[in-house]
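PROTOCOL LOG
Step 1. Enter all chains and additional molecules of the complex.
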Amino acid sequence: MRIGVLAVQGAFAEHLTVLGAIGVEGVEVRLPSDLDGIAALILPGGESTAQRRLIDRWGLRQPILELAQSGTPLFGTCAGMILLARDIVDGDEPVFPLLDVAVRRNAFGRQLDSFEAGIDVSMLGDQPVHGVFIRAPIVERTGPGVDVLATLDDGRIVAVRERNVIATAFHPELAGETRFHRLVATMAAEHDDPGEGSGRRHHPTRRTGLAR
Amino acid sequence: MTVETSTWVTKKGLAQMLKGGVIMDVVTADQAKIAEDAGAVAVMALERVPSDIRAAGGVARMSDPSMIVGIMDAVSIPVMAKARIGHFVEAQILEALGVDYIDESEVLTPADEANHIDKHAFKVPFVCGCRNLGEAIRRINEGAAMMRTKGEAGTGNVVEAVRQLRDVLAEIRRLQGMREDELFVAAKELQAPYELVKQIANDGRLPVVNFVAGGISTPADAALVMQLGAEGVFVGSGIFKSEDPARMANAIVQATTHFDDPKILAEVSKGLGAPMRGISMEQLAESDRLASRGW
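Step 2. Run joint prediction.
Step 3. Record the structure below.
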């Protein structure tokens, strides 16, 4: 399985390192042709204003939207969460309006307000996720189809999922955290195998695609 | 839930978010907007770009705080500002303004001929210049959370940037080939602490992000240093001293992303107008070289 990481700008190398650590091949995505054959796509941290210009300049917007609409898992961290939001508060037009949420950029303030905190993400088990928040965004509104995966102690939302799209305001990839990437890889494997979960599994030795 | 601000991870983490991007020198809020619209990942707010500092002579100091705040209000991307080498009070003032990164910069006139700022004492992260691995490790030891090779600012000439980047990366490769007992001598020769030398030998890279600065003035220059192993670029005079700053800025952003794709580099290099004029190193007296500031 190959998982793409949008590599137009930002901390894409850190995501590739995590993918390597869980035994998944990572692919840098800079052009639409790089999307061929990937099972999931990660949108890394970086500057969302710069990333959106590079996405549009080389025609990545439409193919990534189509990829997501076909059910391929997408995972965005920090700037990636902003790119995936339907609404950006006091900000630009959305890029990939796939998550029915409103996101505020730089919601905690400037760099001096960047922080680290342990975050409970019950979906990933009892051990908290070590969250690194760097000039991080926050989710201010969620639509009815959105699952809240994690909040801060004060209730502010920092991780969400809607169908095949996951986003975090923080950076699991900076803290040696692999569970989000494992989850994305699992979702990608399920998407690759439409029999999964249908109750009608193929016989394990059934051969497909062989010439008679 | 315990919350910790201004940790080493958040300080160097912001630089990680800037990777693969272009940080542009700007002297007004309008220029900052042009830079942001062109795809800059951050701006460096200063009163004069390095080529004008060179031309003006005299003592170059921290910029007027009202000008820095004006730029912070104008854009949503991170804003950096420069303090003189060793001038920890200028750094305190910049931290009080809330800038996102401080550049302890050789482009300004040094305030201390022996000591750099103790950067561990600050909550705001610092980027520092280096010409070689020894300087880089000494700055990181003092608390720098991001490095940049100095190049030769305000010349529009990439030659020093290339030399210094090659030096830093070649020194790292040399460390990687050493036996453990040879690293003690390497640390002595580099005038750098052994623990950091050993870590760099193990990792094959600096423990912080390393950009290139000083002399980048075309998309091809940016792609050259990226292919050599830079993690991003600072462009000072090269944008707003060119004929068409908005186009040049955007082209350098595109070239920094697609640094390994000559077809795209050819495409984005078309019709940009004249880059800044530039100075050859032979025209530059030893005393006018900024890179030799800092030790």
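Step 4. Note key features.
The radius of gyration of chain B is 18 Å.
The interface with chain A takes residues 1-7, 9-10, 13-14, 16-21, 36, 38-42, 72, 76-78, 95, 98-101, 123-125, 250, 253-254, 256-258, 261 of chain B (CB under 8 Å).
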